[in-house]
Design brief:
heterodimer, A: 286 residues, mainly alpha, two-stranded antiparallel ribbon, 2 strands, B: MetI-like fold, 79% helix, 0% strand
């Protein structure tokens, strides 16, 4: 049997060639070119210097705008991650505990928004938060003077937290997989009040899912572009929106490339931090 | 038992609020699309189908929709043709560097689209591919092939190689093993992959924004520019149609392999 199977093998690896060729053409080569471009001088209008230089980096560090941009992006992403976690946790716990035949429907309801265009979902938030939108009209009707909810950071944070919530729910559900309902029943039957059951049993066991969800939502909010652009109305400046502006509007490609490299470094740092914390959590619960 | 009951009601209330939070933007688009007004004011001043009729007059949008549909179909077919053999080689072949290759092929999924889009822009400028069909197809394949590989890999992973070996040991040549055993057994996985790839391509906006040209645009890019420039219920009308379309594909996916596995496999 194995001899027959083995006879078919020599040519089998060749089947991967088209996929690899496509990857080299549309991914590896463009990425190498992008990263190398960050080390040339750039001139607005598409001009690129001839020699390797750190001019872009020097100008970024001298200008207060760019360090501020990075901090603003990180702070916005942290706010979004915390809100998404707080909102998704009870939902995921509810879905996890639902009876099997309901669970499937609930999971589909929670994550199918992911398959909808980001433009459509952002537009939906415009309907809710816009100046004449659902929430401001409601607040006005009950006698409040509504604060401005769009074209500022508030709108971006609310909108993105909701748009990225399905990723958090998915990760939490994966984490809850290790949570056995008999465990919290056991704790409760021994007299633990519900909050103690949550703090001492449910929360520690779900930490790996929490970490994964936070990582995903954090990196996705650092790199998201459509929602900040529309809900921010050009007034919320983040790494991703600045990359787009430099690439498409100002045509300063080396600067856009350098900002991309900064984004990738943020991604790398988030991954390393995740790895470290996840290992400590695993050790702690073992 | 008074304490727990109040606690459970509070928990239920929080869950309900969070469900509303999660689904509100998708749900509120429906009444807004039926507004008789011409702004996004709430509540709408009256009800009408005028924005649905207005869709028919949007010539540019119609063209963008047609482009998006052609593109998504082409990209789905090519993605399957590229990812299916690669997946077979990676799952069934025994050669060095398999893990590394799979990682390389999945890597685009982990990196921010905005960076991928910029990288393609820089290379497409060089080769004159901006605003061309070739460029658009390549850009979308960059986004879809890693998805296709992941979902197919999951489907193939649940299929024991021993079934194929049994067929081969009975004298079936490799091509017949593939067409008569492997493919039928993973048909659901292939359907799910096609549905996911189609949706990813049809909804792709960030990478596409970097590579479209004035003559060739897609529906999400057109919508993005429209929403950036002005706000009226027209987009609500097209959104409702897109939601219905997505729901149909979600049901296909759910039936084929389960939505959670299809979407979850991207991590």
């Amino acid at each position: 049997m194995t001899t027959v199977a083995r006879r078919t093998l020599p040519l089998l690896p060749l089947l991967v060639v088209p996929a690899v060729a496509l990857n080299l053409l549309t991914f590896l080569y463009p990425m190498i070119r992008l990263l190398s471009l960050a080390f040339y001088e750039g001139f607005p209008g598409g001009g690129i210097g001839d020699e390797l230089s750190l001019a872009v980096w020097q100008s970024m560090l001298e200008d207060d705008f760019y360090p501020g941009l990075l901090l603003n992006s990180l702070w916005t992403a942290i706010q979004i991650t915390v809100i998404a976690l707080v909102c998704a946790y009870p939902l995921a716990l509810f879905v996890h505990r639902a009876p099997a035949r309901w669970r499937n429907i609930l999971v589909v309801a929670c994550i199918s928004p992911l398959l909808l265009s980001a433009v459509v979902r952002t537009y939906g938030w415009m309907l809710i938060l816009g100046d004449a939108g659902f929430v401001p009209s409601l607040l006005r009707a009950i006698g409040f003077d509504p604060p401005r909810l769009v074209f500022n950071a508030t709108g971006v944070v609310i909108g993105l937290a909701e748009i990225l919530m399905p990723y958090m729910i998915l990760s939490l559900l994966a984490g809850f997989g290790r949570l056995n309902p008999t465990l919290d029943e056991a704790a409760a039957s021994l007299g633990a009040p519900p909050f103690t059951v949550f703090r001492r049993v449910i929360l520690p066991l779900s930490l790996p899912g929490v970490l994964l969800g936070c990582l995903l939502v954090f990196v996705l909010s650092v790199s998201s572009f459509v929602t900040p652009k529309i809900l921010g109305g050009g007034r919320v400046l983040l790494l991703a929106t600045e990359i787009y502006d430099q690439a498409i509007v100002t045509l300063n490609w080396p600067l856009a490339a350098a900002l991309s490299l900064v984004t990738l470094i943020v991604f790398g740092c988030a991954l390393v931090a995740y790895g470290r914390i996840a290992r400590r959590v695993e050790l702690g619960s073992a | 038992m008074r304490g727990p009951r109040i606690g459970r009601m509070a928990f239920g209330l929080i869950v309900l609020l969070m469900f509303i939070f999660l689904l509100a933007p998708v749900v509120l688009v429906v009444p807004m699309s039926l507004s008789a007004g011409s702004t996004l004011e709430w509540p709408p001043p009256g009800w009408s189908l005028r924005w649905y009729w207005a869709l028919l007059e949007q010539r540019e949008m119609g063209e963008a929709l047609r482009n998006s549909l052609y593109l998504a179909i082409l990209v789905t077919v090519i993605s399957l043709l590229v990812a299916m053999p690669a997946c077979l080689a990676l799952a069934r072949g025994r050669f060095r560097g398999r893990e590394a290759l799979l990682a390389l092929l999945s890597l685009p999924l982990l990196l921010p689209s905005i960076v991928l889009g910029l990288a393609l822009l820089l290379v497409f400028v060089q080769f004159g591919l901006l605003g061309s069909w070739t460029g658009l197809i390549m850009a979308h394949l960059l986004a879809t092939v890693p998805y296709a590989l992941r979902v197919l890999n999951t489907a193939l992973g649940t299929l024991p190689a021993s079934v194929e070996e049994a067929a081969a040991s009975l004298g079936a040549p490799p091509s017949r093993v593939f067409w008569r055993v492997t493919l039928p057994l993973m048909a659901r996985g292939v359907i799910a992959t096609a549905a996911i790839v189609f949706l990813v391509s049809f909804d792709e906006v960030v990478i596409t924004l970097f590579v479209v040209g004035p003559q060739l645009t897609t529906l999400p890019v057109w919508l993005f520019h429209y929403v950036e420039a002005r706000m009226d219920p027209l987009v609500a009308a097209i959104s409702v149609l897109m939601i219905l379309f997505t729901l149909t594909l979600v049901m296909v996916l759910e039936r084929a392999i389960g939505l959670r596995r299809a979407v979850g496999s991207q991590q």
